[in-house]
Design a protein that fits this description.
The chain is of the alpha+beta class. Helices cover 20% and strands 24% of the residues. A hairpin with a 5-residue loop joins strand 1 and strand 2.
């Protein structure tokens, strides 16, 4: 494997800069431009044939705590919830409702937003596309979010007719902290 001279030079400069940056906290360095146009940074003055400029380094900032990027951080979860309007801690806000949707054909499914007024039922016994579909009315019953999440995760919910119509949260939404059941 042949590595070009410019790649080697770039790697050497990068290594030298990282070592130099780690060892210097404040002060000044010299920026030297070689005759071929390449740059070098060093802690001593440049050679006579090179153009030189002095760069002053600011002192490193004091160490600080890492920012909290987590959606459900432990510090945030221990604090009392804020009211959405007043911003006052400790004020209880009404839980957003979820819905149990019951179709006329016996399907039961759960949504965290409003239920549809009707669903399309497809008859799997018909061979032609669109020939076996009909519209079925859906009724909605409001539930607490906690109850809807409990019913979605219940052991017998896998065999429930209508489970494929449940409102599911993607892995991305769950990882971003936007899972309504958590």
């Amino acid at each position: 494997m042949c590595i070009s001279r410019s790649v080697l030079l770039a790697l050497a400069m990068l290594g030298g800069l990282s070592f130099f940056a780690a060892s210097v906290q404040a002060g000044s360095i010299y920026r030297c431009r070689h005759e071929d146009g390449s740059l070098a940074y060093q802690d001593r003055p440049c050679a006579a044939a090179q153009r030189q400029s002095r760069v002053e380094l600011a002192p490193a900032p004091p160490p600080a705590a890492s920012p909290d990027y987590g959606a459900g951080s432990s510090a945030r979860s221990k604090a009392a919830p804020r009211s959405p309007r007043s911003g006052v801690r400790g004020a209880r806000r009404a839980e957003t409702p979820s819905y149990e949707c019951r179709a006329a054909n016996g399907e039961v499914f759960y949504r965290h937003s409003a239920c549809p007024t009707s669903i399309v039922e497809t008859d799997p016994t018909r061979q032609r596309r669109g020939a076996g579909s009909s519209s079925v009315a859906v009724s909605a019953t409001a539930l607490t979010r906690t109850e809807a999440c409990r019913r979605l995760a219940a052991a017998g919910s896998i065999g429930r007719r209508g489970r494929d119509r449940d409102e599911r949260v993607s892995t991305y939404e769950r990882n971003a902290g936007r899972d309504p059941c958590r």
